[in-house]
Amino acid sequence: MKMRKKGSILGLLLLAVVGLSGEMVFAQGSNDGANFMLDFLTTESDTQTQSVIEDTPIFYTITDGGETKIRFDVTLVLKNAVNLVGVNCDMVFDPAKLKVVSIHEARGDLNFDGRSNIADVLVLGELFNRPTSENGYSYFDRYLTGGSAGMIDYRDVETLLPYVNESNLFWTSNANLDFSLMRESVEIFESPDISNARGKIDDIVVVLLSRIHPIPAGFGFDGDARIADITFEVIGDISEGTTIRLEDRMAIDEGTVITQTEISQFSVPTAEEVRISRP
Predict the structure, then answer these.
(1) How confident is the model over 38-55, as pLDDT tens digits?
(2) Which domains does the chain show, CATH number per domain?
């Protein structure tokens, strides 16, 4: 099952949604040398642990309701991650020039959007060790292109079964290609309409879940972590360029300590502003 900020799984989810009311105490984490990047093209050279970054958008057109629209796809990647357990960042863009069409991770995932309330999250947390047959919906996409991008009832086991343990490029999927254990994670992605209203995908959150505490050594992910796929649509003039920035960046690892009042031993990965244009 796919699902911010040391405690139980439930405590982790709670901190993720309400934010931390205490202080963030910086201490060197394992991912100070990591770098958030945008990859505009996925090829056969990309693996789950190594991404070849294409820094130029590949624009394409679609016809929607008789109207031609220009879009491009991008994957958020944390390069050179070490013992990675969780990531968080904001993606800032100009809403007069770009709009988010979709944001998702692997197919067959249970995803929260930014409108999920505390009660929803608490209920799901309480169900971790019980059947979850009465809760929620699953993101599901039948095509690698993202063309169907539909929502289905995740209780439809026959539909989801082909995608259980399916190998994919995202870092949360059987970390480091280890299929011996089921890997659980949480993805919290904001609804595109909310992002487009303020020009920011707020809190892109992905956390790998461990049922053993403290987190055992070797549980985290090493490599280039592919975090989420985002599709943008061009809605304004970008002939002179427009930018996408990554702000409020954080990476947590096996040694990060999270309490009710502070986070310590975390990392703030670097990121460069990306400028894109189309004649």
Answers:
(1) 999 999 999 989 999 999
(2) 9-129+183-274 (2.60.40.680)
